[in-house]
Input
Amino acid sequence: MSPPSLRIHVITEEDPFYLPVFFREFFALLPRDHFTVTGVDITPPLNQKSRRGLARKLYRFYGAVDFLRLGVRFTARKLLDLILPSGWWRGGTIRRIALAQGVPCRTVSDVNAPEYLER
Output
């Protein structure tokens, strides 16, 4: 009789550049007979509640030129994710990757909120 599988619940933030690469590899290499992913909770990027707040933070960090480059890359990735089937596009969102693996995924605004901790 084999031991029960270890249950994993992932808490991450939305990132269109680096995290999808990680999660694609994570799910591809995860030994399903030893581990069960119970879900993926996605928090706002850089803990910013709004896109405007995120844009301000990134602009201050990168400056005008690199902020513009980042914006172009972000927009291109989002468009590719919307128009191409997942088999053709190796990028994608964390949500798309998790759901393709049959893992429930939800957006969480605050992992420190009492309601979230209760659950």
